[in-house]
Amino acid sequence: MLDDLLKNQVRNDHQMAGMLTKYNGKPAFFYQKSPMDTDAHWGVPGSFPRVDYSIDMRYDPERKVSGNMVINVWCNVANKYMPEDIEKRLLELINGTFYTKEITIAAVWNHSEAFNYSMPQNVGGNTSPEVVGITIFFDLMEFPEQLTTDPNPIQALNHWTKRFFPDMTVITMDTPPSVRKPTDKTPAVYWRFEGMGATDKQSYAVNWYTGQFAAHVIAKSITERNRWTKAIIEQIQLNGEVILIDGSPMFVKRIEIRHGADPLREGQIALIGQYGVLAQHRKESAQNPLNRAIYPKFRVEVKENGKAK
Q1: pLDDT by residue (tens digit) across 176-220?
Q2: What is the pLDDT of residues 146-180, one digit of tens each?
Q3: CA of 78: how far to CAs of 21, 32, 44, 135, 229, in Å?
């Protein structure tokens, strides 16, 4: 999934297409490994710059990191564009971008490492230009759907956000483009369940629960990201409650901003809400089974017209 979306994104970028050499008429951007230099589809055999990448996904119950992506940029010293030029454009394209198909995954830059490689001598005894490059490491984080059972607090928070902040993309609720990078004017938000516990506040009709939630607010700049975060905090505190889909309220007990939190990994808003779930009604009367269980020989007689039945 991510493989196809990433390849189309990079190859269709005009700036990147102008930096890379061509293979079979397309920018030289390959999954895992480039074709052999002797392949006839190269415009010029052994030409550079070229890029290859690999993706490694893994299971993580905390969804902080769902995998890694490694991109290798290959150039030689005779090229017009150096690895740093191509790295800069790749970071502009990929870092902080959301890829959505069956699931939503965000790519976040981790670090980069430079390398060089001495090419072997060719048949004529001449040495090819030295190859230099850079390896770019990205973390891949999945944003799974957080919906559970009714009444669903995450679903309510998603709808509440869309009502008061229609310009925001609510991840897993809205249907965004397959490749999307949030901006300052159209940021993204993701509500996540962190935990839930029962309280001692119970009644015959309602069981009460306390839910812990986190909101990830993603924008291009830190200034605008903080502005949107502050706006959400103030609006939800002004309301004091979020109405669940069944019409019942979830009361906001506590909400705070975590300025030091990573917007993609942890989320900058922590919210504690209290909501009720209707208690289950009895499915049958317990009187007759209970009496017969305690007094197995007890016999109830019903009289009709004065006669025992």
Answers
A1: 789 999 999 999 999 999 888 887 777 777 888 999 999 999 999
A2: 877 788 899 999 999 999 999 999 998 998 789 99
A3: 13, 25, 14, 19, 48
Query: Up-side HSE of residue 213: CA atoms within 13 Å toward CB?
Result: 30
- The CATH number given to 2-142 is 3.30.2000
Check whether 302 has a pLDDT greater than 50.
no
Sign of the C-alpha dihedral computed for residues 10, 11, 14 and 18 taken in this order? positive
pLDDT, greater one: 48 or 301: 48
Per-residue pLDDT at 296: 52
Q: Do 190 and 176 meet the contact criterion of CB atoms below 8 Å apart?
A: no
Determine the residue type at 80: K
Q: Characterize 96-128 residue by residue with b for buried, 16 or more Cβ atoms within 10 angstroms of its Cβ, and e for exposed.
A: bbbbbeeebbbbbbeebeeeeeeeeeeeeeeee
108 neighbors 138 (Cβ within 8 angstroms): yes
> In the chain, which residues fall in CATH 3.30.2000.10?
153-278
Give the 3-state DSSP-derived string for 151-188, with helices as H, strands as E and coil as C: CCHHHHHHHHHHHHCCCCEECCCCCCCCEECCCCCCCE
For tokens 């905090």, name the residue: 233
- In CATH, what is the architecture of 153-278? 2-Layer Sandwich (3.30)
Say which residues have a Cβ less than 8 Å from residue 50's Cβ, sequence separation at least 6.
Answer: 20, 21, 23, 28, 29, 30, 34, 74
Judged against a pLDDT cut of 50, whether residue 32 lies above it is answered with yes
Q: Is 255 helix (H, G, I), strand (E, B) or coil?
A: strand
Q: What is the pLDDT of residues 37-59, one digit of tens each?
A: 888 888 777 789 999 999 998 87
pLDDT at residue 64 greater than cutoff 60? yes
Beta strands in 179-297 (DSSP E): 179-180, 188-202, 206-218, 241-243, 249-257, 269-278
Q: Which two tokens stand for residue 223?
A: 């200034």
How far out from the chain centre does Cα 124 lie?
Answer: 53
